[in-house]
Amino acid sequence: MTDSATTTTGYEAIQEWQEQLYQDLHRNPELSMEESRTVEVVVAQLMEWGYDVKRIGGGVVGTLANGDGPTVLFRADMDALPVEEATGLDYASEAPGVMHACGHDVHVACGLGAARLLAEQKQQWSGTYVALFQPGEETAEGARAMVDAGLADAVPRPDVALGQHVLPGVAGTVSTASGPVLSAGDSIRITVFGNGTHGSMPHLGVDSVVLASSIVMRLQTVVAREIAPGDFGVVTVGAIHAGAKSNIIPDSAELLVNVRTYDDDVRERVLKAIERIVRGECATAGSPEPPSLTYYDQFPLTVSDPSAATVVTTAFEAHFGADKVGHLDPVPASEDFSRIPGAWGDVPYLYWGLGGFSEGAKAVANHNPAFAPTMQPTLRTGTEAAMIAALAYLRPST
Description:
10 helices; elongated; hydrolase; eight-stranded mixed β-sheet; 2 domains; alpha/beta; 33% helix; Aminopeptidase; 16 strands; four-stranded antiparallel β-sheet
């Protein structure tokens, strides 16, 4: 392993190029699984720096072999969100209704920056570096698509996988942790059935609106009464759709439910409880047919490896200073990153947070139309973090 305290990243030489790249990516956001322009940008850059480039499942992997040593994979996601931008930036999105509101443009720019620096400084390390750029994180499709398309056979098995996410913390800082850092996420589309009737004659039908309302109230007891106080769980009903007129009782109602958990056993208990409650309420109401439950946007749990957390945190503290490295508290948002190392079965991984806002500035949350990370030192810190984390594993050349 290299001594990160003595590593000179050479970032100044790429800063102007990277800032222009970042602004271009921000101006040209693309929705999940539609990242064709971004893919072409990534492919062109990686090929220019001598990477062996492959397109896999809508994403890109670039492999740079540099002698004997470990294999390190760094992943960046590429997709934007269906959000109308309200940042007022002079490089704001030029795509109507589409915006990099989650900072994946930062991730791509930092991923390419690290890939360039490692390619230009091969004398500092020995081993294999894999730069992976993933589509469709926001819809939980992208990692699975790459795995299903043969990712594990296309690149060497990594000894460790790395990833980061820009968050509303202080720019110039990073935060790490071992154990659960992002929750598992499940969305459920629930359709319940009644018998439609005139609003003045509810006794002649089965009211799907009342049935759906009863389910909403009962779901509030899942976490409060079925999950141990020390465990984490969130059950949210984000939408209810039923009917179109005040005097017509509709024959069906739809609920959109979202679940977040930090433990697979808790996740299983919560999902089983939801199904039990839905089916029980339908039976109690005299529903004429069983409910329909469709699961979608399912994200795995993200659990950082303790050994990787120790290795990388030590390297970060040596490079950035201990005052710039914080503890990443578990975030109830979800990610599909862990499916990438999961392609090889049991590859350890680390996922850390990257601060993106000036100290004292009002930092809005990811997915907000005004989400606008401070360009610097965010880009530099994210690029150097990816590079330093990789160099913590790649052996120095002899």
